[in-house]
Automatic annotation (TrEMBL):
PANTHER family: ARABINOSE-BINDING PROTEIN-RELATED, EXTRACELLULAR SOLUTE-BINDING PROTEIN FAMILY 1. Keywords: Signal. This is Extracellular solute-binding protein. Residues 1-24 form the signal peptide. It comes from Perspicuibacillus lycopersici. InterPro entries: Bact_solute-bd_prot1, SBP. It comes from the Bacteria.
Length: 995
């Protein structure tokens, strides 16, 4: 090796090494012992060293060390014997809701329950709890389990205690069109027992905990919700008998002669409120109707999360052995097999019906629970009432999920090292001898490809030889890795194919991680029967043909939500939302608004909100439109198509229910052309587990953010800003918060020019660019949600969409992330300026309305606290946690079924909500601020020069648009254009001032 090349290699290695000196200084010491420095050098730069290992890794380690399950042991500890019972709210047996013993009310006031248990030997044990859920909310009750004051694996940080739900009635009500309505949901409160399980339900058995011989301390820590806690049990791991063992221990008997037919959509309970009846239009479903939508099946996509369970009650008149047959459609998007645990009276009767497969089939199929040879399993039922349950089960694909997670982590580590080597510069003209710096890179790529190939073969066998999209995605990832390995020296310039692009290997595998756990199954009915014929699963050809003809004919008269126009006595309201939203709003209006006011309303689904401009021009507009983007009312108002709500006498007092800053884009001068309907929020998301482990404080200001970056980056992590999530053009939401926080403004006082060249705005734009150019924050992140889950970006700023994703689709970190206000700029008086945008949807009245007063009455009813609260709660109960409703009504928002601490944070941030006021030329301002950032960051242009160039283009276009709309003529102002302000909105006094 030449001397020059050796020097280059040393410099590269110095760049790759973590900045240990900075770490030491951050901890107040620069003199470190040699062994401490060696320990630090040995640390892997990823979050596996920051958080506990996953359960499967720890379990494998215990097995290698010879740690085994303990047999024939069970004990319990009653609440009165808990270690800290004197400090807890211990309720008497009379207050125990029928438990018959002392219980503890476990909530925020009693956050930690500790008990001591003595076991006979070292080994693996299970924990079970008696509990009584309190409350009627979608938010699950959650806690964490520490053994001897430690989390033994990451999954022990979140244990879920589910509630049981049912439809309020099995007789489905009908809407105005004769279609059946999904009933309200009610929770059933009673005592039940549960073993501690993986919250993601990816483990096939309850979690096991290692207890040492003798005394052990077990602590249940509160995360969310409240419940009564009874006895805590420590016992040997549960063992499920085989089918032979099951039948051997049962009495002799014959197959039952009875045929029980049970419709899936009625008489059932469930552990998720949003498992719901589905209207399936098909001649093979029972019941069916060619004209009306009947709720005639249950499950589908509402029953795809692992662990979700449906329980049906059946009455057996004659004891004996029976077969179970389910009439189902298994139509998983990727075409893979799904799995269910079959339970009888709350237990899996034998191991062969755990993880029972339902293969992909788009048509209705009678699926009898049978063995590999096709011989049906026989279930023994005594005379009387029994419960038959199916539980969604993704545990068979858990090994593939674990492998994919490991490969993604390893690929990201390699990508980070390569970026450090190349200085994060993608220079296509530069050649790299990458194997000289990473000698094992070819072996790494080959190893990843082989491991993924093994999982592809495993899935194919698991899916009974079917080629699903899951397998195709794995094979494509393998192919990409092998292609990259053919020319490893090109990898520095092809990282978009490995970890960063939308079609990269990481993105393919990340998408697969979202799809693999899904286990959808749609059930029409099931049969408990003996060796006898059961009804056919599909209708005959002639019956199907007749049904389809009738449906075609009836479609011309059947009611729907199309925009067909309403009669003169009915308000026509267009809604820019999916059908399930419109159905719910129509039902609420029919039940309360119309009876209370006498005003009839008809809702229609808006196919495209941009068509409102054309509809208005053609005088074919509705009376009211809701769910429209907040930019649209201004575009219609400046063309004199929308009604000024400020004309109503009670508008000002009514407006107090909303954030003042939300009105700014809806105003021209002092006229207001819409009211906020929903409201976005930008807050700081952070992983509690990682920040606590690294002893990093939650940032409060941008100075705090800058200070924590070295420690984050030392572990291969970083901080996320919304700029990184915007591709190409950077919208106002990603750039304007910096301007407002630094005290800058977008417009001049007369509104005719821009003000971004003033000193405060210049400082803001400079800092915004420095975050990427100096502080090395990521410039492009395709999906913050995924990076947050995988811990590479454990802290960052994101909006409502990310909140929904983390709440509904990240069970593995639930309870271990939190939100805080947007970091801001500290002011001279010590306060922190946190201004941020919050665009949402709005509702408006058209000038061509039949009755402006009636339309205003509707808007007031729709956005009232009571209506918004009922709508939000019902929507989430029926359709699941992902159907969160971020109402703009502040009082209604306080009533949402969200964690209280999160609502407090969001409401605090909304005090700094400041939307961008609209002007005829505001679009050019948005575009040019984005261009300025691109010039500074990517082209290295001087900030002042970049701003000055853009200001010329912005002012020229703004003047042109002001002349177009009559505010200027020949460069002179002929009519003032007042930029609305928060102070202006807050001065609205309403009825209080009028008095």
């Amino acid at each position: 090796m030449s001397f020059k090349k050796a020097i280059s290699l040393i410099l590269i290695l110095l760049l790759v090494m973590p900045p240990f000196t900075s770490h030491a200084e951050a901890n107040g010491s620069t003199d470190q012992p040699a062994d401490e420095t060696a320990d630090q050098t040995a640390e892997i730069q990823n979050t596996e060293t920051v958080i506990e290992d996953r359960y499967h890794t720890v379990l494998e380690k215990w097995e290698k060390e010879g740690v085994t399950n303990v047999s024939n042991f069970e004990t319990f500890v009653a609440p009165s014997n808990f270690l800290n019972s004197d400090d807890l709210n211990l309720l008497s047996s009379e207050e125990s809701m029928g438990y018959g013993d002392n219980v503890i009310h476990w909530n925020d006031q009693n956050p930690s329950l500790s008990l001591e248990v003595t076991v006979p030997s070292d080994g693996l044990y299970e924990l079970s709890f008696d509990y009584y859920p309190i409350g009627n909310e979608v938010i699950p009750i959650e806690g964490s389990v520490l053994v001897n004051r430690e989390y033994q694996y990451y999954e022990s940080r979140r244990i879920v205690f589910p509630s049981v739900w049912k439809n309020a009635q099995d007789e489905f009500e009908k809407d105005r069109f004769g279609n059946e309505i999904i009933p309200k949901q009610v929770s059933l409160t009673d005592w039940r027992q549960i073993s501690a399980e993986d919250a993601s339900h990816l483990q096939s058995q309850p979690l096991k905990f290692f207890l040492k011989e003798g005394s052990n301390e077990i602590t249940l820590s509160h995360l969310r919700g409240e419940m009564l806690v009874g006895k805590v049990y420590v016992h040997s791991p549960t063992r499920i008998p085989s089918y032979k063992e099951y039948t051997d221990q049962l009495p002799d008997g014959e197959e039952g002669k009875e045929l029980i037919i049970h419709e899936g959509e009625i008489d059932y309970t469930k552990n998720s409120s949003f498992i719901r009846p589905i209207a399936t239009v098909d001649s093979s479903v029972v019941p069916n109707d060619p004209k009306y939508l009947l709720l005639n099946s249950v499950g589908g996509e509402s029953w795809e999360e692992s662990g979700q369970q449906i329980n049906w009650n059946v009455s057996i008149k004659e004891a004996g052995y029976y077969r179970l047959t389910f009439k189902v459609i298994q139509n998983k998007t990727t075409g893979g097999t799904v799995f269910r645990n079959v339970l009888i009276d709350g237990e899996i009767p034998f191991s062969e019906v755990a993880h029972y497969p339902f293969e992909f089939n788009k048509k209705w199929t009678n699926s009898t629970i049978d063995d590999e040879k096709g011989d049906p399993y026989l279930f023994y039922f005594s005379e009387g009432e029994h419960e038959i349950s199916l539980q969604a089960d993704a545990s068979p694909v858990n090994r593939t999920i674990n492998t994919i997670n490991q490969v993604i982590t390893e690929m990201q580590d390699l990508s980070l090292s390569i970026k450090k080597l190349t200085g994060n510069q993608d220079d296509k003209s530069r050649e790299w001898n990458i194997t000289e710096f990473f000698p094992d890179i070819e072996a790494q790529l080959d190893n990843w490809a082989n491991r993924l190939d093994e999982e592809s073969k495993y899935l194919k066998e698991l899916y009974n030889g079917d080629d699903s999209q899951d397998i195709v995605s794995l094979n494509l990832a393998v192919q990409k890795l092998r292609t990259l390995n053919e020319k490893p020296n090109e990898i520095p310039n092809r990282l978009t194919e490995l970890t960063e692009g939308s079609s990269s290997v990481t993105q393919l595998l990340g998408n697969l991680l979202l799809e693999l756990p899904k286990q959808p199954l749609l059930v029409d009915r099931f049969y408990v029967h003996g060796d006898q014929d059961i009804p056919k699963d599909r209708a005959s050809f002639w019956k199907t043909a007749a049904f389809n003809i009738k449906r075609f004919v009836q479609s011309f008269t059947a009611g729907n939500y199309s925009a067909d126009g309403a009669d003169e006595n009915t308000l026509e309201i267009w809604v820019n939302r999916p059908r399930q939203y419109v159905e719910l709003i129509q039902n609420l209006a029919d039940q309360s608004f119309t009876p209370e006011t006498g005003i009839k309303v008809q809702f229609s689904i808006m196919p495209d909100e941009s068509k409102l401009i054309l509809a208005s021009a053609a005088n074919n507009q509705p009376d009211v439109a809701i769910g429209v983007s907040n930019w649209l009312p201004y575009e219609l108002a400046i063309r004199d198509a929308v009604y000024d709500l400020h004309q109503f006498g009670d508008f000002e007092s009514y407006s107090k229910q909303f954030s003042p800053g939300a009105f700014l884009p809806l105003m021209i001068d002092d006229s207001v052309y819409a009211i906020p309907e929903t409201q976005d929020f930008f807050v700081q998301f952070y992983r509690k587990d990682i920040l606590e482990k690294l002893n990093i404080p939650v940032p409060n200001t941008w100075d705090d953010v800058v200070q924590i970056l070295p420690e984050l980056q030392r572990y291969g992590m970083n901080y996320y800003t919304p700029i990184a999530g915007a591709t190409g053009s950077k919208p106002f939401a990603t750039t304007v918060p910096y301007v407002y926080q630094f005290g800058g403004e977008l417009y001049s006082e007369n509104g005719m020019l821009t003000a971004i060249d003033e000193e405060e705005s210049l400082q803001a734009i400079q800092f915004m660019a420095d975050l990427n150019t100096i502080y090395s924050m990521p410039m492009q992140v395709p999906n913050f949600y995924n990076h947050f889950r995988y811990s590479t970006l454990p802290v960052g700023i994101a909006n409502f969409t990310t909140y929904v994703q983390l709440t509904s689709a990240a069970p593995e970190i639930a309870g271990w992330w939190d939100i805080s206000p947007y970091p801001g700029v500290e002011q001279e008086d010590g306060t922190v300026s946190r201004w941020a945008t919050g665009s949402g949807q709005s509702g408006m009245i058209f000038n061509g309305t039949k009755s402006a007063d009636d339309s205003w009455e509707f808007l007031k009813w729709w956005m009232s606290t009571d209506t918004q609260t009922e709508f939000a709660n019902t929507l989430q109960l029926l359709y699941g946690p992902e159907y969160m409703w971020n109402t703009a009504n502040l009082e209604a928002f306080k009533n949402l079924p969200w964690p209280e601490e999160h609502k407090e944070t969001i409401l605090a941030q909304w005090e700094y909500l400041k939307e961008v006021p609209k002007t005829p030329g505001s679009y050019i301002l948005e575009r040019e601020i984005s261009n300025i950032w691109n010039k500074i960051v990517f082209e290295g242009e001087n900030t002042r020069a970049a701003i000055d160039d853009s200001v010329i283009a912005i002012n020229r276009e703004m003047i042109r648009k002001m002349e177009e709309f009559g505010y200027m003529k020949n460069g002179q102002v002929v009519k003032p254009y007042h930029i609305p302000t928060i102070e202006q909105v807050m001065e609205w006094g309403g009825n209080e001032n009028e008095e």
